[in-house]
Design a protein that fits this description.
Elements lengths: L2 H23 L2 E14 L8 H6 L1 E12 L2 E2 L4 E2 L4 H5 E15 L3 H4 L3 H8 E16 L4 H5 L5 E14 L2 E4 L23 E17 L2 E12 L20 E12 L1
Antiparallel strand pairs: 1-2, 1-11, 2-5, 3-4, 5-6, 6-7, 6-8, 7-9, 9-10, 10-11
Length: about 260
């Protein structure tokens, strides 16, 4: 069984345990999916360069689960009216995103050996994430579930376990030698499978389309704190080295169980 399959099997088992235990405690649940473009900020290209930011964009998908404290599954009724129950939810999710990465910017555009080496190199970041976050809704969750108002903004913070397997190739030949590789990346390319932790920030809103379903729109930031090889590169030029992170705009659909 491959690593992603193991993780998916594990999370399915954990979700089953959550459903069983929380149903007994009276919580309710929500399930959904998300998808959208992922802008990968990495060591490909130049820092703060517009062409790099708009060019290195991939796609991500995710499965999400919520614990809803405002409604009781065991009695089909609202829970006690407390601030926690009416303004917070716990979200867990499984994400997978893939981004093709290129060296873009002024250095790669130069008519030089270095420019040719950069233009000839291409990478791919393949990332699997599993984690949870807490979401705060400034407006009443009860009121939103009843249909008034129809929009519910939120702010979320959390952490993910990350498993990655990057790729790096060049049309000039195998990377790692002075003929094919820009000097900054000599001995600084690692495409082996690895793991990291991501800190997650999320800003978004829900729009109610029926009693038991919402549309979700959000803007997420995942910052990889303990590895700079999620993209496969960690240049020896400190001025151009950047911790890997993504910005993910996603749209989703959520239904209430």
């Amino acid at each position: 069984m491959t690593h992603p399959q193991k993780y998916i099997t594990t999370i399915i088992i954990l979700l089953g345990m959550i459903f069983t235990s929380n149903a007994q405690l009276g919580f309710s649940h929500e399930l959904g999916f998300i998808t959208g473009p992922v802008a990968f900020q990495s060591d490909y290209g130049e820092r703060y360069d517009f062409n790099t930011n708009k060019g290195n964009v991939g796609i991500g998908v995710g499965l999400i689960h919520y614990i809803n404290f405002a409604y009781r599954a065991d009695c089909d009724c609202y829970t006690g009216d407390t601030y926690w129950n009416d303004h917070f939810k716990i979200r867990s999710e499984i994400d997978y995103h893939v981004t093709t990465l290129n060296h873009l910017g002024d250095e790669a555009d130069k008519n030089s050996i270095g420019g040719l080496q950069l233009r000839s190199m291409q990478g791919k970041a393949k990332v699997f994430e599993l984690g949870a976050q807490i979401e705060w809704y400034p407006l009443s969750i009860r009121d939103f579930q009843s249909g008034q108002p129809k929009v519910a903004p939120y702010v979320g913070f959390g952490a993910h376990y990350v498993n990655y397997r990057p790729e790096a190739t060049s049309v000039l030949g195998p990377l790692g030698n002075p003929v094919t590789t820009f000097p900054t990346f000599i001995d600084r390319i690692d495409t082996s499978q690895g793991s990291a932790i991501a800190l997650v920030g999320d800003l978004g809103f829900r729009y109610k389309i029926s009693d038991l379903s919402d549309i979700l729109i959000s803007s997420k930031w995942h910052y990889y704190v303990d590895s700079n090889y999620v993209d496969g590169l960690s240049p020896n030029n400190v001025n151009n080295r950047a911790n890997d992170w993504i910005w993910w705009f996603n749209v989703g659909y959520i239904f209430y169980l």
